[in-house]
Amino acid sequence: MTLFDNHNRPINYLRLAVTDRCNLRCFYCMPEEGIHYLPKKELLSFEEIYRLVSLLASMGITKVRLTGGEPFVRTDLMKLIRSIVEIPGIKDLHLTTNGVLTSTFIPELKKIGIASVNLSLDTLDRQRFKTITRRDEFEPVLKTLDQLLKYDIPVKINAVVMDGKNIDDIVPLIELTRNSKVDVRFIEEMPFNGEGNHYPVLNWTYKKILSYIQEHYPSLHKIPDPDFSTSYNYTVPGYQGNIGVIAAFSRTFCGTCNRIRVTAQGVLKTCLYDEGVLDIKQLLRTDQDDSAVKEKLYEAFRQRTKDGFEAEQKRNSNLPVHESMSTIGG
C-alpha cells in the first residue's frame, strides 16, 4: 500500500531520532554549553520504537533512517538495528552518524545489510574540525570514513556550509569524490542550533554554494536527481563520486517531500519546520491499541502543511525557529 498526505504526496520515509544526546557540540547544531538532555524515561524505549516502526510499516513506510543526536551514544543501538531490519515492509534501513563511535560497528552493519550511511563531516582540516565541533575527534571520524569505504557501504558526507568557518573546505571535500565512490552534499545552514539564526541574512544559499563550486569546477555536470531527492546533484567528469547541494533553508524541495520525523521524545513532525504535530509517546504509553494509534497518525498526515514556510507560520509560539537539531533529529 502507498500512504499519501493531503497534498497527494506519498509518505514512505521515516527519520527516527533514537536519542537527543551527542558527543560533539557542532556550531550549527547546538550552543557550546550543550542543551538540556532528556532523562532516559522521556525517550522512546526500543520496544516502543519497534512497535511504532511496525505500525508505520503496515501503513506504507518502507524506508527508515536512524538519527540523533548521535545514534551510537545510545547503548545497544545494534540490538535495535537488528530488530528493525526484520520488520515486514521495511526495505531499507539507513543511518546518520558523526562517526566518532561508529567504526567498530561497520563490519556488523555491512553484514546486517545497512542500506547507506550519512556521515556528518564539515571539514578535512583537524583544527577547523575542532573549532566547528568544539571537540578534538577528527581521527575517529576519518577512521569511520575509511571503514565505510573499505566495506563498500554507500556513504554520503553531509557538510553544512558556514560563512567564515569552512568555505575553504568545499574544494577539498569535493576532491574526495575524485577517487572514491562517495557522495558529498553541501547543506545550507539552518537555524536549528538552540540559538536561532547565526546571520542576519543567509549569504551561503544553495545558489551561492553551487556558483562557488562551478567557479572551481567549470566542467561540473548535472546528473538526474533521484525521486524525492533533497539535493541538486552533480558530478565532475572523470570523478567516481557525486556532489549534491541541499537547499535546506530555502526549502525548494517541499513539493516532493516523502518524509516524516519522529523526535527522540516521541513527537511526530510532518515537516522539519513545525513544532511537532502528535505526541506518539503519550499514545503508546496510555494503552491505545494499534488501530487507535494508526488513526491518530492518519489524521496527522491528512493535515500536513504544504511546505516549510507554512509550517513555520503555523507554529504556536511567537519565537523564531531555534530548536537544536540534536533535539529534533538530524
Automatic annotation (TrEMBL):
<keyword id="KW-0411">Iron-sulfur</keyword>
<dbReference type="InterPro" id="IPR000385">
    <property type="entry name" value="MoaA_NifB_PqqE_Fe-S-bd_CS"/>
</dbReference>
<feature type="binding site">
    <location>
        <position position="29"/>
    </location>
    <ligand>
        <name>[4Fe-4S] cluster 1</name>
    </ligand>
</feature>
<keyword id="KW-0004">4Fe-4S</keyword>
<dbReference type="InterPro" id="IPR006638">
    <property type="entry name" value="Elp3/MiaA/NifB-like_rSAM"/>
</dbReference>
<dbReference type="InterPro" id="IPR040064">
    <property type="entry name" value="MoaA-like"/>
</dbReference>
<dbReference type="Pfam" id="PF04055">
    <property type="entry name" value="Radical_SAM"/>
</dbReference>
<feature type="binding site">
    <location>
        <position position="257"/>
    </location>
    <ligand>
        <name>[4Fe-4S] cluster 2</name>
    </ligand>
</feature>
<feature type="region of interest" description="Disordered">
    <location>
        <begin position="309"/>
        <end position="330"/>
    </location>
</feature>
<feature type="binding site">
    <location>
        <position position="22"/>
    </location>
    <ligand>
        <name>[4Fe-4S] cluster 1</name>
    </ligand>
</feature>
<feature type="binding site">
    <location>
        <position position="190"/>
    </location>
    <ligand>
        <name>S-adenosyl-L-methionine</name>
    </ligand>
</feature>
<keyword id="KW-0547">Nucleotide-binding</keyword>
<keyword id="KW-0408">Iron</keyword>
<comment type="subunit">
    <text>Monomer and homodimer.</text>
</comment>
<feature type="binding site">
    <location>
        <position position="96"/>
    </location>
    <ligand>
        <name>GTP</name>
    </ligand>
</feature>
<feature type="binding site">
    <location>
        <position position="254"/>
    </location>
    <ligand>
        <name>[4Fe-4S] cluster 2</name>
    </ligand>
</feature>
<feature type="binding site">
    <location>
        <position position="65"/>
    </location>
    <ligand>
        <name>GTP</name>
    </ligand>
</feature>
<comment type="similarity">
    <text>Belongs to the radical SAM superfamily. MoaA family.</text>
</comment>
<keyword id="KW-0342">GTP-binding</keyword>
<feature type="binding site">
    <location>
        <begin position="259"/>
        <end position="261"/>
    </location>
    <ligand>
        <name>GTP</name>
    </ligand>
</feature>
<dbReference type="InterPro" id="IPR010505">
    <property type="entry name" value="MoaA_twitch"/>
</dbReference>
<keyword id="KW-0949">S-adenosyl-L-methionine</keyword>
<feature type="binding site">
    <location>
        <position position="156"/>
    </location>
    <ligand>
        <name>GTP</name>
    </ligand>
</feature>
<protein>
    <recommendedName>
        <fullName>GTP 3',8-cyclase</fullName>
        <ecNumber>4.1.99.22</ecNumber>
    </recommendedName>
</protein>
<dbReference type="Pfam" id="PF06463">
    <property type="entry name" value="Mob_synth_C"/>
</dbReference>
<feature type="compositionally biased region" description="Polar residues">
    <location>
        <begin position="316"/>
        <end position="330"/>
    </location>
</feature>
<feature type="binding site">
    <location>
        <position position="28"/>
    </location>
    <ligand>
        <name>S-adenosyl-L-methionine</name>
    </ligand>
</feature>
<keyword id="KW-0501">Molybdenum cofactor biosynthesis</keyword>
<dbReference type="InterPro" id="IPR007197">
    <property type="entry name" value="rSAM"/>
</dbReference>
<feature type="domain" description="Radical SAM core">
    <location>
        <begin position="6"/>
        <end position="224"/>
    </location>
</feature>
<dbReference type="InterPro" id="IPR013785">
    <property type="entry name" value="Aldolase_TIM"/>
</dbReference>
<dbReference type="GO" id="GO:0061798">
    <property type="term" value="F:GTP 3',8'-cyclase activity"/>
</dbReference>
<keyword id="KW-0479">Metal-binding</keyword>
<comment type="function">
    <text>Catalyzes the cyclization of GTP to (8S)-3',8-cyclo-7,8-dihydroguanosine 5'-triphosphate.</text>
</comment>
<feature type="binding site">
    <location>
        <position position="120"/>
    </location>
    <ligand>
        <name>S-adenosyl-L-methionine</name>
    </ligand>
</feature>
<feature type="binding site">
    <location>
        <position position="26"/>
    </location>
    <ligand>
        <name>[4Fe-4S] cluster 1</name>
    </ligand>
</feature>
<dbReference type="InterPro" id="IPR058240">
    <property type="entry name" value="rSAM_sf"/>
</dbReference>
<keyword id="KW-0456">Lyase</keyword>
<dbReference type="InterPro" id="IPR013483">
    <property type="entry name" value="MoaA"/>
</dbReference>
<feature type="binding site">
    <location>
        <position position="69"/>
    </location>
    <ligand>
        <name>S-adenosyl-L-methionine</name>
    </ligand>
</feature>
<comment type="pathway">
    <text>Cofactor biosynthesis; molybdopterin biosynthesis.</text>
</comment>
<dbReference type="InterPro" id="IPR050105">
    <property type="entry name" value="MoCo_biosynth_MoaA/MoaC"/>
</dbReference>
